[in-house]
Amino acid sequence: MLFMKNSTIVNIVLALAVAGLYIIYFTGNKKGNSTMSDNSKGTGKQLSIAYVKMDSMLFTYELAKKLNAEFTSEKEAYRKQYTDKRIKFERDYATFQEKVQRGGFLTEDRARQEQERLVGLQQEIQKLDADLTQKLSDMQAQINQQIVDSISSFLKSYNEVKKYDIIINSAMMLEGSAQYNITKEVTQGLNDRYKSSAK
After folding, report:
1. Where are the domains of the chain?
2. Burial of 115 (0-12, 13-18, 19+ CB in 10 A)
3. Has domain 2-198 been given CATH number 3.30.910.20?
4. HEC secondary structure over 32-44
5. Which pLDDT tens digit goes with each residue over 46-71?
């Protein structure tokens, strides 16, 4: 039962964020606030670089928290639906075995019919498991994309004012000075925009 594994949407979003927001490049007027020089064109001007801690941001971004809660609720509903059917099947199968052992079926044909019914029920449960797993996977993908799109669109508008050359995910960074960490500012902006749009 793939959908019953103990994965959380936060872990999935983190994985997607690492891949999807690997490095975000922005263009515009530059302001030098890092020590990295752009020597590729021989200009010698400094690159303006900032970074965000995606893991921290996703735990405090209200939209991500809301979508995670909705996903968890939906997953629990699917799990209950599957578990209820599975328990009924196991009870019916145990009853069938007990009747076979004590000769409780009047005819062999009746026992075969019950066995076929149980096989059909088992196949239905397996299909349900696959269907629910696919639904949860699709839901995860949609949530991931929604969060990534939201963060990306915010960073684009945010950077129209800030004019960074590059904004990176700290997960891709071995070391970085705290002065280039814009996580708190970006998270506040995301939450302000979310609250405003929710009104």
Report:
1. 2-198
2. middle
3. yes
4. CCCCCEECCCCCC
5. 888 899 998 889 999 999 999 999 99
